[in-house]
Design brief:
By secondary structure, the chain is of the alpha/beta class. It contains 5 helices and 6 strands, in the order βαβαβαββαβα. Helices cover 34% and strands 19% of the residues. The longest helix is centred in the last third of the chain and has 16 residues. The relative contact order is 0.17.
């Protein structure tokens, strides 16, 4: 049974930025425990992957979801080489970027979704399309820029809710 969401933030943000607060509240409404790992001060993607793996490796496989934004998207994806999440929800993931270790493996999780903005000025949309095609996963392209704020955040939250429902995580009945 899925009980927890682990969030990984981007390079220039923190563990409780706007997107994580919004999606975290959604996860909590669905009865999930929410953890957001603090990577501030860790600039290397590989070092962030190690921190995520060390924080999550004691969790039973398929009992948690990884959610990552930008560098956190890369970190969440790269960690699936050793972790076995039930799902992976990536926001503007820093995939196929220079100076990042290669990520040419296939993740070991059943459900993968990507949300990316057409006008992302940091991560080229072509990188994300190629990545999603290789994984044969769902890729949502939205109007907006890298930070996925405003209307893009509203849509991202709705997509996250739908993702949770596809993983059979419904809000508790009141």
């Amino acid at each position: 049974m899925i009980s927890t969401v682990y969030f990984s933030h981007g390079l220039e943000s923190g563990p409780w930025g706007t997107k994580i607060k919004r999606l975290g509240a959604t996860a909590e409404r669905h009865g999930l425990s929410v953890h957001s790992i603090d990577y501030r001060g860790i600039r290397l993607p590989a070092a962030r992957v190690e921190k995520l793996v060390s924080q999550v490796s004691q969790e039973p496989p398929d009992s948690y979801i990884l959610v990552g934004s930008s560098m956190g998207g890369y970190v969440s994806f790269a960690a699936t080489d050793r972790l076995r999440p039930a799902g992976l929800f990536l926001l503007a993931p820093a995939v196929m970027m220079p100076n990042y270790p290669p990520s040419d493996f296939l993740p070991q999780c059943a459900q993968i979704e990507v949300v990316h903005a057409w006008d992302d000025e940091v991560i080229p949309v072509e990188n994300v399309l190629s990545f999603a095609r290789r994984l044969n996963c769902t890729c949502h392209l939205v109007a907006g820029e890298h930070r996925l704020l405003g209307e893009a955040l509203e849509l991202t939250d709705a997509l996250f809710q739908s993702f949770l429902l596809r993983l059979n995580i419904s809000p508790p009945k009141t």
